[in-house]
Amino acid sequence: MAPTAVPMEDREVQSVSSRFESAAPEAILRWAIEEYGSGLTMATAFGVEGCVLLAMLAGIPGGRDVRVFNLETGYQFPETLALRMIRFSGMP
Questions:
Q1: Average pLDDT rounded to a whole number, residues 20-41
Q2: What is the pLDDT, as a whole number, of residue 89?
Q3: Structural domain of residue 74, as residue ranges?
Q4: Rounded to an integer, what distance in angstroms lies between the CA atom of residue 44 and that of residue 41?
Q5: Among 27, 26, 86, 92, CA closest to 65
Q6: C-alpha span between 59 and 68 (Å, rounded)
Q7: Distance (Å, rounded) from C-alpha 60 to C-alpha 75?
Q8: Contact criterion met (CB below 8 Å) for 71 and 44
């Protein structure tokens, strides 16, 4: 599905929230990929949680097309910043 151009109404947000209240993270990510397509973007500081979500995304059809950007927290290890530079150098 193409990215949604119109923001969700409050009732739609409530409906989606209720639907995914106890859903598995993969189900939520799958829905987001289907709903927003190439418009989906994920932020990560490459902490444990972010890395787990990236791994989940990689296993979902279309997940490897999600744009990812680094949240520079000022607390990242030099090794994390070096990995980011290696992984994302030359990528749009």
A1: 93
A2: 53
A3: 10-88
A4: 10
A5: 92
A6: 15
A7: 30
A8: yes
For residues 87 and 89, the model is more confident at 87
* Residue 88: band (very low, low, confident or very high) from pLDDT cuts 50, 70, 90: low
Instruction: Dump pLDDT digits (tens) for 36-66.
Output: 988 999 998 888 898 899 999 999 999 999 9
To the nearest whole percent, how much of the chain has pLDDT over 90? 38
Residue 71: both structure tokens together: 């949240």
Phi, psi of 73 (to 5 degrees): -90, -15
Number of independent structural domains in the chain: 1
Q: Residue 37 carries which DSSP code?
A: G
- Domain-located, residue 5: no
Does 1 fall in a domain? no
SS3 content of the chain, % helix, strand, coil (to 5): 55, 10, 35
The DSSP secondary-structure symbol of 4 reads P
